Amino acid sequence: MSDLTVRNLDVILDDNQILSDVSIDIPRGKLVGLIGPNGAGKSILLKSILGLIDEASGEITLDDKDLSTWTLKERGQKISYAAQGAPVHWPLTVGHLVSLGRIPHLSPWQSTSTEDQALTLEAMKKTNVDHLSTRITTTLSGGERARAMLARAIVTGAEFLLADEPIEALDPYHQIQIMNILKDLADTGHGVLLVLHDLNFAQSYCDELILIDKGKIISSGKPQDVLSDENLQNAYNIKVTRLEQDGKSYIIPSAL
Q1: What is the spatial distance between Cα 25 and Cα 221, in angstroms, rounded to a whole number?
Q2: How far is the C-alpha of 163 from the C-alpha of 51, rounded, in Å?
Q3: Which of 73, 123, 158, 245 sits CB 3.0–4.6 Å from 154 for a disulfide?
Q4: Average pLDDT rounded to a whole number, residues 24-38
Q5: How far, CA to CA in Å, does 102 sit from each of 96, 125, 185?
Q6: Which CATH number fits domain 4-255: 3.40.50.300, 3.30.70.100, 3.40.50.150, 3.40.50.280?
Q7: What per-residue string of b and e applies to 34-48 under the rule 16 or more CB within 10 Å gives b?
Q8: Rounded to whole angstroms, what are the CA distances from 205 to 142, 168, 180?
Q9: Considering the chain, what percentage of its residues have pLDDT values greater than 90?
Q10: Sheet-wide strand order for 56-62
Q11: DSSP secondary structure string, 112-171?
């Protein structure tokens, strides 16, 4: 089977070029980190892949089939999405919210099955929100809500997961927990595209990195190649100090 691929993607919004000739591959079995400064176009790239940006032009294919020809149900079964800071407007319980991730597998008006309910509980346990199953989602903290939304994306069982800064609002323990979950998904055959800002998580967890700045791909490949001093200076306007401890490398950024 082919990867999820993006070729020659352009996005122009309000006469502003947001993405320019972007081409990337999201292989099954890989955790791919999408990094870059604020406003680089990372979230727009994810939304374009999902078909949420009407102004996007280019070719996006999965299994050699143009995604624009897939039905919403088919697309929902193949690709799940954890949006950045996604609001929840309805007073749903966490259990109900997470179970909505099974909708692409249900017929209209079909209730969730015993299997769906078991998968929902498993996803909540993975993201450590099972103890919140009866809580109303609108009462959750930002970090709790982020974990619940990730559980909803995971329970879909899609082959590809796009996650937009899923660790942004989390404490260090839950950041590590979520990164371990995403890495495990990739290691068990899923393709994961993850937007994140933490360069140390990027280099320690991701199999590949894509560095984007001003709507263009600056560098892509292995983390040690993408996270070069030159690339980080050009994209972020920072200099870095690198430390080695217990066989691991750490990046300490500072302003130029």
Answers
A1: 11
A2: 15
A3: 123
A4: 96
A5: 10, 16, 17
A6: 3.40.50.300
A7: bbbeeebbbbbbbbb
A8: 23, 16, 8
A9: 70
A10: 16-26, 4-13, 56-62, 65-66
A11: P-HHHHHHHHHHHHHTT-GGGTTSBGGGS-HHHHHHHHHHHHHHT--SEEEEESTTTT--
d(CA 121, CA 124): 5
Q: Is the whole-model pTM more than 0.85?
A: yes
Structure tokens at 123: 């996803």
Task: Give tens-digit pLDDT for 47-105.
Answer: 999 988 988 999 999 988 898 888 888 888 899 999 887 667 778 999 999 999 898 88
One-letter amino acid at 206 equals C
Residue 146 pLDDT class (50, 70, 90 cuts) = confident
Residue 71 tokens, joined: 């039905």
What 3-state class would DSSP assign to 93?
strand
Q: What are the CA-CA distances from residue 136 to residues 2, 25, 95, 98, 120 (Å)? A: 40, 38, 9, 12, 16
Domain-by-domain residue ranges, the chain? 4-255
